[in-house]
Amino acid sequence: MKVMKVPCRSIRYKEFPDLLFGTPPKGAPVYFDATHFIQSRGDEKRHCLADFRVAFHLWIEELCRQYGIDKEELFIRDEASGHLLIDECLALLFVVYIEPPFGVYLLERISEMLIDGFTVSDTWLVQSAGLRFTNEELTQILEHHET
Question: What is the pLDDT of residues 137-146, one digit of tens each?
């Protein structure tokens, strides 16, 4: 496994602030810190790279083929921390591995998109409502909805 210096400090998905991304000095590809995510949201006794690779083998193979990614570049170790880093293309699959209910959520949103032609996240909906209505209006709407 390659060892590179890739500080992962950027949050890409607000719903997963423990999923940290970083880029090596040469600029590409982008990696996420799998070790940090397991320590923060997973179970170090239950979750490991080997199991992830087996569980998502077909997905990993297809993503490598579709994106032309060298399998030797997919999984690296950070020189400074010793943490396992994984190419960004596997980030959401890794979240599903650690938190299977997120996979159910993704399937529901994709189904909604295919049936209705669009979908929105819960986060977007709450943010949009907050921009559109005052707190008092939202309270009234919720009270009216409950009755």
Answer: 888 888 887 7
